[in-house]
Write a structure and sequence with these properties.
single chain; mainly beta; 2 helices; disordered N terminus
Length: 266
């Protein structure tokens, strides 16, 4: 079994890391703490105690496995380590899987414009898997002004030596943005839990692996709304799923959201 340390995982140069923003937890205030002691997932609406929905609020599900609702035989479960999201192929060859979003189409849900967002996850091995922890912004009542998406991690199971982080400006992925490939030792993300985080400040957005900075980019001016977290186990992303393990399981220990606190650490 690979026992990957932070030092081993961060293969970017020491000089590049030294110029990035270190993570100061003392400058953060928790606003959403999800440790998955229970499953509070609803199909589409955050009501009656639900903390998550099982589809994107804008009805934009994606990938080669259908995201399905919670329930008996569904993709969501719990074990001693937290949430499990399972992708399965049925006898007819159809794949199903799961997504959770801490927001719905009414604009309900926790979120902050500037803060730190973190998920602790163990990724599923095998080609064709496409797990992600990412952030979206509420789009309500047909608002067509630009919105943003941040990908703390997108992982492509055929390439175990890294993961992608990104900033997107929608519609049309226009305006400032970017993608970055973060190198790690092969198989290190599927054999142990790791923390994937992103800190959004007015001037700069910093991406972290195990709370160490791996990439930094100026915060686009189109970022004007609160952000909320999403986690999913999709399949495909243009890559074959013929050899994807059945089942494949994404394990999520927690998802935490913090708001930036003005002023120096106390």
């Amino acid at each position: 079994m690979i026992r990957a340390t932070v030092a081993a995982l961060l293969l970017s140069t020491c000089g590049a890391q030294a110029t990035m923003t270190p993570l100061a937890m003392c400058a953060l205030r928790p606003v959403f703490t999800e440790d998955f002691k229970t499953l509070a997932i609803a199909p589409h609406t955050l009501a009656d105690g639900a903390r998550w929905t099982a589809h994107t609020p804008w009805n934009g599900d994606f990938g080669d496995a259908a995201f399905v609702d919670p329930g008996v035989g569904g993709p969501f479960g719990r074990d001693a380590e937290g949430l499990t999201i399972t992708a399965r192929r049925d006898a007819a060859g159809h794949w199903t899987s799961g997504l959770i979003a801490a927001g719905d189409a009414t604009g309900t849900g926790p979120g902050v414009r500037y803060g730190y967002f973190e998920a602790r996850m163990k990724l599923p091995p095998g080609p064709g898997t496409w797990p992600a922890f990412w952030l979206g912004t509420h789009i309500v009542n047909g608002d067509t002004t630009p919105s943003v998406e941040l990908d703390a991690i997108e992982y492509y199971g055929h390439n175990t030596g890294g993961f992608q982080s990104g900033w997107h400006v929608w519609p049309g992925d226009k305006g400032p943005g970017g993608l970055h490939w973060n190198k790690v030792p092969a198989d290190s993300l599927t054999t142990a839990f790791h923390n994937y985080g992103v800190r959004v400040a007015p001037d700069v957005t910093t991406f972290y692996l195990d709370r160490q900075p791996v990439w930094e980019i100026p915060t686009p001016p189109q970022h004007t709304r609160p952000l909320y977290p999403l986690v999913n186990l999709a399949l495909g992303s243009g890559y074959p799923i013929t050899d994807t393990p059945n089942p494949s399981v994404l394990r999520v220990a927690y998802v935490h959201v913090y708001e930036l606190v003005p002023g120096p650490c106390r």
